[in-house]
TrEMBL record:
Name of this chain's protein: Putative transcriptional regulator, GntR family protein
Occurrences of domain HTH tetR-type (ranges): 67-127
PROSITE patterns on file: HTH_GNTR (PS50949), HTH_TETR_2 (PS50977)
Keywords: DNA-binding, Transcription, Transcription regulation
Organism of origin: Streptomyces bingchenggensis (strain BCW-1)
Length: 286
């Protein structure tokens, strides 16, 4: 059988490479635009874009560098992390998404590590707090917790940006810290207790939110949704519930006619109340 012909975008790439090699396209010269390629080769704009992106990734042509900014790089990186997870992020992938040469982002961001910090600072800056705060420490802490939860909900990869013991010193993250610290200040708590309670509230939100990213990674790795994965555990679950070793688990699960559905949003709300009750006890003891 004859070999399969190259896809259209590769034929375009090959021809433009030839023109560069033969000097028809001189260094610094203008390569055909996306629309010019689409018209000359009779292809869709998406195909023309793919051809130019391939050439840019190979370093053969330069993209519109005057339009490339740090803000565009960070936004593209956030989009990748939101859809594919932080593990999928690379500087080359960001360049491909923006349709520029592979090394171009380094002109604006020094490294992937620097990029992740910029991403996190941008994400944490998407929400702020009202100039006229609610009355009372408890509504203010509830607002802080739900604000952080919403941010992690929108960007699950944020939980992977650093351990609790190595806090990110980011201006926009400090906005959330300042809100909590100002809320706890003035209630007779010593400075260490104020900081401990702040870390406790933050770690509560971050801890539950970590499952958002882990679930996304598990679904990407297995191709199974949470419900589909659980359906495949029926045999293992039956082995546990019929074993005499776990009578309490068997009794409790048997009392649930529709089973137990773990919903992280509901778990977050359920746990927030007791956490704030505990903080109330500490404040009232002062």
């Amino acid at each position: 059988m004859p070999p399969e012909p190259d896809p259209p975008y590769l034929r375009i790439v090959t021809e433009i490479r030839r023109r560069i090699a033969d000097g028809e396209l001189a260094p610094g010269g203008r390569v055909p635009s996306t629309r010019q390629i689409a018209k000359e080769w009779g292809v869709a704009l998406a195909t023309a874009t793919k051809a130019l992106t391939t050439l840019r990734l190979d370093g053969l042509v330069e993209g519109p560098e005057h339009e490339l900014t740090r803000e565009r790089i960070v936004r593209a990186a956030i989009e990748i992390a939101d859809s594919e997870g932080l593990a999928a992020l690379s500087m080359r992938g960001v360049a491909a998404r923006l349709g520029v040469a592979a090394m171009s982002p380094y002109r604006h961001v020094g490294s992937k590590e620097d990029l992740v910090l910029l991403m996190a600072d941008t994400a944490f800056g998407e929400k702020s707090y009202p100039a006229d705060p609610p009355t009372g420490w408890r509504p203010r802490l509830e607002l802080a917790a739900r604000t952080l939860w919403a941010l992690y909900r929108n960007h699950p990869w944020l939980t992977q940006t650093g351990p609790l013991t190595r806090p990110l010193l980011l201006p926009n993250l400090m906005v959330h810290a300042e809100w909590v610290l100002a809320t706890l200040d003035g209630h007779g708590l010593d400075p260490t207790t104020v900081l401990d309670l702040h870390v406790l509230l933050y770690s509560y939100v971050q801890g539950i939110a970590a499952s958002l990213e882990q679930e996304a990674q598990a679904e990407a790795a297995t191709g199974l949704s949470e419900d589909e994965w659980m359906d495949r555990q029926s045999q293992a679950l039956q082995a546990i519930t019929t074993s005499p070793r776990y009578p309490t688990f068997t009794r409790i699960t048997a009392s649930l006619p529709n089973g137990y559905d773990l919903r992280l949003d509901e778990l977050f709300e359920f746990g927030l109340g007791p956490l704030l009750d505990g903080i109330a006890g500490i404040i009232e003891d002062r």
